[in-house]
Amino acid sequence: MLTIWNYQLQFIAPAFLGDAGQNGAWRTPPLKAQLRQWWRMAYAADHQHRVDLDAMRQAEGQLFGVAADTKGDSRQSRVRLRLNRWDRGRLSAEHWERLAPVARPEVRNAQPTADLYLGYGPVLAGRPPLKAQAAIQAGESAVFSLAVDEQVDDTERRRLQLALRLMHGYGTVGGRSRNGWGSYTLAPQGETPAWPKLPETVLRPWRDALAQDWPHALGRDERGPLVWSTGAKADWRAAMVELARLKIRLRTALQFTTKENAPRPEPRHWLAYPVTKHSVQGWGNARLPNTLRFKLRPTGHGQVEGLVFHVPALPPAAFNPAAARQVILDLWAGIHRQLDQALPRVQA
Among 92, 97, 104, 319, which one is most buried in terms of CB atoms within 10 A? Predict the structure, then answer.
C-alpha cells in the first residue's frame, strides 16, 4: 500500500524550469533531482558525516531507482512524484520587469540590473529580456505529491521527511537557482506529517566539512549556523536587489593582482570559477560553483527575506585544492566576517 504525502509548493521568486522548448514550465524531474540532492545531506547527517560513498549510492539507487547499463540491473523508484499541473509558467518574456540597477565598481559605466547580474543566462541584457518565452512567476503554486512504496522502511521515510524539510528551508530549483531564483516553500497538506525538527547533525564545522568535495552539510562555526538574513523586504524584487548588491560587495572585496591567464589562482578564483577576463593557467574550462547560496522565503504580510547560507565543500581534485588549503581557509573565514558585519545571523 502506498503512502501519499501532499505539499503545497509555492514559488517565492521566478523560476527558470525549462521544458523541451526551454520555456519555463511545471515539471517533476527538477524536483526529483532536488529531493535526491537533499536526501544525500539527510543521509550524511544520519551517519555523522562519515559516509561510505559506495554505500550511499547503493541506498540512493534502491530508493530512487537506477537506469543501469548492460553491466547492471535497473531498479524502479520506490518514490514517485506528481504535480497537479504541467502547464507553462505565467510570466511571459514580454511582461518581465527589470529590477533596479546595481553598481559594479570594477566595470566603468556599467550598471546592470539586479535580475541580469544574478540571472545572467536565463535573463538577457537586451530585448527580449528572457532567453525562454516564459518563466514561472513568483506566487504560482501547485500540489506536489510523493507516493512512497510500502517497502520503504522507517529509516528511509525519516530521511525523506528530513530531505523535504531541507528543501522547504533551503531549496531552490532551475536556472541560476544558487542565486535565489526558483526559491520555493513546501507546506504539508491534510494528513501529511508536520515538519520534523532539523537535527544538529545537518550542521558541521565548516573547516571539517572541507574534508568532503560534495555538499553534505550546512556549515557552522563557533557562533552558530552559517545562515544570514537580509531582514524583511517589501517583496521578492527588493530582496533580490539586496542579494545582488551583497554579492557584488563580497566579490569586489577580493582584488585581483593578475589578469587573464594568471599563473596561479588567487582567492577570488577559489570563491567561484570561471571569472570573466581572469582565467587561470591549467584550469581551462573547469567550473567551480560558489558554495555560498541564496534563498528567498516569506516572512508574512507579503514581505520576503533573503537568506545567505554556506554549504562548505572542498573544490574538486582537478583544482588541486590541497596546494592552496590555507588560502581557501582564509578566504572563507574572511567571507564569514564580512557577512557578520553586513547581516544578522538566523537559526538554521
Answer: 319
Alpha helices for the chain (secondary structure H): 29-46, 53-64, 114-119, 154-170, 206-209, 236-252, 267-271, 325-342
- Give buried/exposed letters for 31-42 (b at 16+ CB in 10 A, else e): bbebbebbbbbb
Decide the pairing of beta strands 3-11 and 79-83: unpaired
Q: How do beta strands 227-233 and 134-135 pair?
A: unpaired
For 187-301, where are the alpha helices, taking DSSP H only?
206-209, 236-252, 267-271
pTM of the full predicted structure? 0.94
Q: Which residue has the cell 553534505?
A: 216
Residue range 195-246, pLDDT digits in tens: 989 999 999 999 999 999 999 999 999 999 999 999 999 999 999 999 999 9
The amino acid occupying position 9 is: L
**What DSSP character marks residue 179?**
B
Write the single-letter amino acid at 59.
A
- In DSSP terms, 15 is beta-bridged to 136
Please give the span between the terminal C-alpha atoms of the chain, in angstroms, as a whole number: 35
Handedness of CA 284, 286, 292, 298 (dihedral sign): positive
Beta strand 218-221 with 203-205: parallel, antiparallel or unpaired? parallel
Query: What 3-state class would DSSP assign to 327?
Result: helix
DSSP states of 113-160 as a string? BHHHHHHBTTB-SSSSSBSSSEEBPTT-EEEEEEEE-TTS-HHHHHHH
Please report the pLDDT score of residue 285 as a whole number: 86
133: pLDDT strictly greater than 90: no
Q: Are 338 and 250 in contact (CB under 8 A)?
A: yes
3-state helix, strand, coil in the chain (%, to 5): 30, 25, 45
The four Cα atoms 149, 154, 158, 163 give a dihedral, to 10 degrees, of: -30
